[in-house]
Amino acid sequence: MPNKPKPPPKGWLWSAEAADYLGVHVVTLRRWRRDGIGPKSRPHGLRRYRYKISELDAWMNGEHAEDESARAAA
């Protein structure tokens, strides 16, 4: 039986879930992470990233003015 990935800690989302939550494609979220724009992410291992739900909400509510152009581009 293959191992299932562990769920993220309570209050966090993995990249794909965070992209759905924001209404963008996961590639857009990856590009924002690469370019240093968009919501803050934290690495979890070598290839996984997680996003704190409260920080996603704050970012969507415009509490990070430097990221306005990134949301407009999505």
From TrEMBL:
Domain Helix-turn-helix: 15-62
InterPro entries, per database record: DNA-bd_dom_put_sf (IPR009061), HTH_17 (IPR041657), SinI_DNA-bd (IPR010093), WH-like_DNA-bd_sf (IPR036388)
Gene Ontology MF, one: DNA binding
A Pfam family recorded for this sequence: HTH_17
SUPFAM superfamilies: Putative DNA-binding domain (SSF46955)
This protein's name: Helix-turn-helix transcriptional regulator
Organism, as annotated: Streptomyces sp. R28
Organism classification: Bacteria, Bacillati, Actinomycetota, Actinomycetes, Kitasatosporales
